[in-house]
Specification:
This protein has 333 residues and is α/β, with parallel strands linked by helices. The protein contains ten helices and eleven strands. Helix content is 29%, strand content 21%.
């Protein structure tokens, strides 16, 4: 997993223009490696979904990407800056190279069309030379791939359970065998048992097909179990990034510690659930210095004055980064 498939460099996303614009994503750097699962966690309003829609150019108005690059590395050919693609190039790129599973499966599926119609439309749009028989065979194969009987192609979305609708969305995302699948809180509306079933199936598909996953959720407990690496987002910025096991055992940023102490541990000794006091920052009036300092129990002098840089901590752990004055970076970037 050392070969990058998607590099986000200095991405900035605003809502609105000029001095009144709300800076929702602020100079984000992230690298997704081929075949890995990168988890992105944070409270509601931290900028996770905005980041996903910005890098895929799916932002609804008045959202606008105001800076940065999104470099995609195809299996064959030179790197491509997604933000510079023409509309025709972008149409060919979406779903074929990068696909997205949206948060609400019922809202993402057209309620008046059968599952078959919606799956076949995706394949037909990107593979116009394929035959109807080949497209139907591919649709049946996709449903079997996610554990749904092929006869469900004749069902409408309202005739499927929530878990089955989510699996249909995953099947649609995998229809053209993309290299990157972005999942925006795909299990939020499902019960715990169905969450585990879908995540287990997704892990199996990832092992079999080799695609990379950017998994976005506010539930850090899911990411610890499912992800290879985890990035923590707060106030539109990445504030910590580490391998999943390391972050769970030894979180460096106080915000990450607060997230980890907001859900009970299933193994080991009992621990008190403390949560995080206060509320996320107002993006229209961000606090000075570290955005988390008004809520941070460990804040001290520089925190309210100077923004901490994101980089590897100075104690010799180059495989992780943190933006916190408790752990000054070795080489700021």
């Amino acid at each position: 997993m050392t070969d990058p498939v998607l590099e986000i460099r200095g991405l900035r996303v605003d809502y609105g223009l000029g001095d009144q614009a709300v800076r929702a994503v602020r100079d984000v750097d992230l690298t997704l490696h081929r075949g890995e699962v990168l988890g992105l966690a944070g409270e509601s309003g931290s900028g996770k979904s905005t980041l996903a829609y910005g890098l895929t150019r799916l932002l609804p108005p008045p959202g606008v990407v105001s800076g940065g690059q999104v470099i995609y590395h195809p299996v064959d050919g030179p790197p491509v800056d997604v933000l510079s693609l023409t509309p025709a190039q972008l149409r060919r790129f979406r779903w074929a190279e990068t696909s997205i599973v949206f948060q609400g499966a019922m809202n993402s599926l057209n309620p008046v069309h059968k599952v078959a119609t919606q799956l076949l439309d995706v394949i037909r749009a990107h593979e116009p030379k394929s035959t109807p028989a080949a497209r139907l065979a591919r649709a049946r194969e996709l449903l079997r791939l996610v554990g749904i009987a092929a006869d469900r192609l004749d069902s409408h979305p309202h005739q499927l359970s929530g878990g089955m609708r989510q699996r249909v969305m995953i099947a649609m995302a995998l229809a053209l065998e993309p290299q990157v699948v972005i999942m925006d809180e795909p299990t939020t509306a499902l019960d715990v048992v169905m969450q585990r079933q879908i995540l287990g199936q997704l892990a199996e598909l990832r092992e079999r097909l080799g695609f990379a996953v950017l998994f976005i959720t506010h539930d850090l407990s899911l990411l610890v179990e499912f992800s290879d690496r985890i990035a923590i987002m707060y106030g539109g910025r990445i504030i910590e990034q580490a391998p999943a096991g390391q972050l769970y055992r030894d979180a460096l940023h106080p915000y990450t510690e607060g997230l980890l102490h907001s859900f009970p541990a299933l193994h080991g000794p009992r621990r008190e659930l403390t949560g995080i006091p206060g509320s996320p920052p107002d993006l229209r009036a961000m606090p000075s210095g570290c955005a988390f300092h008004p809520r941070c129990p460990k804040a001290f002098d520089p925190c309210d004055e100077t923004l901490p840089p994101l980089g590897p901590p100075g104690d010799g752990r180059p495989d992780r980064t943190v933006a916190c004055w408790l752990h000054p970076v070795a080489t700021p970037r």
